[in-house]
């Protein structure tokens, strides 16, 4: 019975490393420009979920490369462009945004990702809202 327990534990640890629950997730972005009459609510996908990471408590004993904190980030993405309604002629009415196609656990790349979790909710509209399903 003890060998079954050990095998089950090893299987669970292996599965936990591979099934990290990092996947594309539905998300709504609210976009507005002060010159335009409406706020645009865009339904898209972002990368979200749990990734296994290393404990950095022993940081004085480990190499710097061993201290990486993995995050759920984009593996493949594409950009789409939406038209913000109610903009005057002199304003560029387009907004481009990323769409997550697939995700991975890895280091956060600040070239295309926001690597900080904000506590203040800033994703809302202050103007009348239009919905854009992409």
TrEMBL record:
GO molecular function: hormone activity
GO BP annotations, alphabetical order: G protein-coupled receptor signaling pathway
Keyword RNA-binding found: no
Domain of life: Eukaryota
UniProt cross-references to CDD domains, sorted A to Z: GHB_like (cd00069)
GO CC annotations, alphabetized: cytoplasm; extracellular space
N-terminal signal peptide: 1-16
Cited InterPro entries: Cystine-knot_cytokine, Glyco_hormone_CN, Gonadotropin_bsu, Gonadotropin_bsu_CS
Locations listed in the record: Secreted
Alphabetical UniProt keywords: Disulfide bond, Glycoprotein, Hormone, Secreted, Signal
Glycoprotein hormone subunit beta domain location: 21-125
Transmembrane segments: none
Similarity-based family: Belongs to the glycoprotein hormones subunit beta family.
Subunit: Heterodimer of a common alpha chain and a unique beta chain which confers biological specificity to thyrotropin, lutropin, follitropin and gonadotropin.
Protein name per Swiss-Prot or TrEMBL: Thyrotropin subunit beta
Upper lineage: Eukaryota, Metazoa, Chordata, Craniata, Vertebrata
Chain's gene name: Tshb
